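User: I'll paste a sequence; please echo it back and then give the predicted structure.

Assistant: Echoing your sequence first, then the prediction.
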Amino acid sequence: MDVGRKKVEEVFFDAMLNGWANPDIEKTTLPHFPRSKAIWFRRGNFMVLDWYLKNGTESMGNTIIWEEGIPTWMMSYGGSYPKEAIPFLKEALLVAYQKRGFFGGRGPIFYFYQNDKYVYINTTMRNNFASFLGAEKIVLKENSAIVGFHTYWGRLLRTAYII
């Protein structure tokens, strides 16, 4: 794997561990984007912006990594989760980020650790840091009814890191 690409991937995991899924992180609002929430992360020559918009249970967002001011990697996601499922979603995402497991930039393939209500399922159709696509959902453990979901996709934006 290219050294530059590996650094971008390391920055991604560090940013996500210090991002939305982390309950201790403060969010800001993006100017000119009502109802937006944003988290900025900086490390050396890298800058990461993870921002999202919410309208009730509906949400969409983007994560963008710049290296030396050049857009280098991006992820887009969107869907719907009820407020009561958000803590479990954050827990599932943090599990993948702490293990530095890349599953489309989201949570693990399957997760329900010590939870008696929900199951998290992540289906990746393409799962490579350079190019990925998939969908995640939370279902009720008792009857598999879908509680919420996000679809996602993204890719590296620097050709030198893809080859």
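The chain has one domain: 3-162. The chain has three helices and eight strands.
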